[in-house]
Amino acid sequence: MTRPKGNLKGRSTSESESYPVSAIRSPISTPLRVVFVGHVDHGKSTLIGRILHDTGSLPEGKIEEIKKACAAEGMEFEFAFLLDALLEEQKQNVTIDTTEIPFRTARRRYAIIDAPGHKEFLKNMITGASRADAAILVIGADEGVREQSRRHGYLLSMLGIRNLIVVVNKMDLVGYSEKRFREIEQDYRKFLQQLGLNAHTFIPASASEGENVARSSMKMKWYCAANVLEALDLLEPQKSDVDLPLRFCVQDVYRFDGRRIIAGRIETGTLRVGDELIFSPANKSSVVATIERWPQVILSGVEGSRRASSTVTQRDSSTSPGMTVVAGDSIGITLAEQIFVERGYVASHQNETPVETNRFHADLFWIVREPLRIGHFYDLRLATQEVKCQIVSIEQVMDSSTLEKTSDAREQLQRNEIGRLAIQTRGPLVIDNYDRVPNLGRFVIVDDGKICGGGTIFGGVYTDRTVAKSKNIFWTEEKITARERALRTGHRGAVIWLTGLSGAGKSTIAQSLERDLFHRGMHTYVLDGDNIRHGLTSNLGFSPDDRMENIRRVSEVAKLMADAGTVVITAFISPYRMDRRRAREIALEGNAEFIEVFVDAPLEVCEARDPKNLYKKARAGEIREFTGIDAPYEAPDDPEIVVHTDQQTVDESVATILEQLLSRLRTEE
Amino acid sequence: MTEVARTHLDALENQSIFIFREAYHAFKNIATPWSMGKDSNVLIWLARKSFFGRVPFPILHIDTTYEFPEMLEFREWATKYHNLNLIVKINTEARARGIGYETNDPVTVTHELKTVALQQALAEYKWDALITGIRRDEDPTRAKERYFSPRNAQFEWDYKDQPPEFWSQFVTTTAKGEHVRVQPLLDWTEIDVWRYIQRENIPIPKMYFARNGKRFRSLGCSPITHPIESNASTIDEIVAELEATKTTERAGRAQDHYERNAMQKLRAKGFL
């Protein structure tokens, strides 16, 4: 190899070739993908060029080619140009987009993802980093920690990349000063700790001089830990998704040869022939009959390696029990019963179901010029699900570089900001918390076909679906859709769930609200104690179990009526959060909007009103387990709407509800 | 802890199948250009894997009229073998104008007989997505590609302002006249392709294997595609040869090297 010039002056070639390169280059394992990030001009591309050179990874003639290009442009050769192969980039001396370049060490193969440092190219950095297993964050020793150093660190943590090596580069420019290195290390460690990240490797290095990259530096004897390549080799791949709960996300349903094959990818967990699967949001279950493959393949049990048979058959499927497919596998299955399944459905095992909701909280980073606006309809995509959504509120905004938080009420989220939001979707969404199942806990916001931001979900509440598990029900696929019904009635079916203490005003508001909707020409109906307790649930009392069953029955009836296109208003105390969560899930299964309204009034106010003399009886001990007296009321944490009946008149309360309700009942624009 | 081994090839295959299925769902009207080269045969194979034995969209061959006779034989055989809905497109207008390697430089001919022919096919069939077999490791300009890469009505690739792509979410909408290039092999390397051909026993043209001390590493138009010195007559030998070489794959393709940044210029104008 020709001795490199330019920034590499003063290096000996023999050193560069001393790093061991394995003789066998067979691609057995997937390369570890490493993204290089950091502030512009802190030397990412130079470090990559150096690594490629020192591991003997450059194609023959590459350096000569780049040198010729530099000469043509009248520029001095720089190693960074290897990556900036496009003409435009060489002109501007800035990396524009992500590239992926292979190299290997004695331990394993790597793929370098180079991500640009310029602020306006954030989307490219995210594109590159989202594919990475590990990150090298480069900080220039001369400039120290800068805006992009912090912003990239924050985004790496949001993207879930925990393997982080911080390289303090350009140590040659600060005289290889340990003091300077420690300053930067301390500064950045403090920042990482605020993100909840710590114990990462910090390496003082000079990419242009080759110090502490492939060989340990003699000029920084005060540093005796791993150099960059050694540190990379010490990384362990991130925890396998195989051990997480099963999430099989349906991409499509193919009908070939009269069979129905459900195609999709196992995002996490494992799936076997004979497994009983629960499909969300329908909450219907069926057993995996076959795992389909083409061409015929034999799965040898232990190592699971695949081998195509020598004769290609038209199709084959495997019904052998115990056959396992795992996270990452793109598969097709057939089910024992023909339940309705479509793109977006998520299959899980019964004991580890995801959350089904139309309202959740998330941290969202925003990457486009046009700000995110409250109330505007966006498309939300999560795995293979796509649903319309609205931002309900922006609770907190953080500058991704300074980590400064502002919690003033905001109507918009600007580019490069990270917001803590409440999001409401039209129709059910199957989610997980990001810290539990990352692949189902992250989503993108799409506006006019463009991906504008990405978010991670937290705080979702898991319920035990086995409590009210429905039997397998055969749904015909030609059923009349909610959309068709909505087109006829002019509005969507919905469940307006009023909850609050006895005497808070639920029934009064329900009747008044119904009257208003009725006058607007809508199909509407109120379910309350009067028409439920005497019939549908006349065999139930007020024990916690009976209350739960009461609410379950009301939820099921409300779902059916909403599915039929009616706006159902329920007026029950419904004191338990878990019951209301279940009511929400049941409504969403029927593809109905679910809107929880907290009819709030202090206990003293309700007790003073006491329209049916129930509080008096409870105080006197004539009624047991009365909510607010000797049974608990769990106020909603996060209702869609709150009305305060101690401060608002009935009309005002109804107006508050209508304000938020009507837009949600509109048919798709 | 579940112990199920998946190789690198399994991971690549799974990702490619996922992309095929996303594309098939997202676009109404798609097609796959097929050069009959090793990569595009792998692409056909992966399509059959994705859709359980069938290729549920048309396959397009841009015939430059400078095809090797052996390649045309292979085309006929493979079309039947895979049961393909094959569309053959020739830019007859350019040939009538006398465009050809006998009279023009290779960049001009490649543009006219490949890119323009592709544009003509797109105009005729109104595809909103093309599934292509390009790989990141082939060329620096291809390294910058996305899995789903939009092209405007003029066929141009705006590599300076590409959409973000993360968490398996892709650009799946097109305006009128635009199309999206879907690239399921983006993460594969040349050696991965060979290993996969070997593992899956995928049919490819015999010209890739050495005869009389020469073989083709990359296949294109006959006047401008040159064989390399090689005795590799099996896939194992080819892989061993590739592991030892530091020459680039497309070194034998004249149009790439006709002028500086020729490949970038060709690609910005719509070349695959």
Describe the model:
- The complex is a heterodimer of chains A (669) and B (272).
- With 669 residues, chain A is an alpha+beta fold.
- Chain A has four domains: 6-234, 3-Layer(aba) Sandwich (Rossmann fold), CATH 3.40.50.300; 241-351, Elongation Factor Tu (Ef-tu), domain 3; 355-461, Beta Barrel (Elongation Factor Tu (Ef-tu), domain 3), CATH 2.40.30.10; 480-665, Rossmann fold (3-Layer(aba) Sandwich), CATH 3.40.50.300.
- In chain A, a hairpin with a 3-residue loop joins strand 10 and strand 11.
- Chain A is elongated.
- Mean pLDDT of chain A is 82; it is low at 1-27, 86-98, 298-316 and 468-477.
- Chain B has 272 residues and is an alpha/beta fold.
- Chain B has a domain at 8-189: Rossmann fold, CATH 3.40.50.620.
- Chain B has ten helices and eight strands.
- In chain B, the strands form two sheets. Chain B has a six-stranded mixed sheet, with helices on both faces. A two-stranded antiparallel sheet of chain B has the order 7-8.
- The relative contact order of chain B is 0.17.
- At the A-B interface, helix 3, strand 2, helix 5, strand 7 and strand 8 of A face helix 1, helix 2, helix 6 and helix 7 of B.
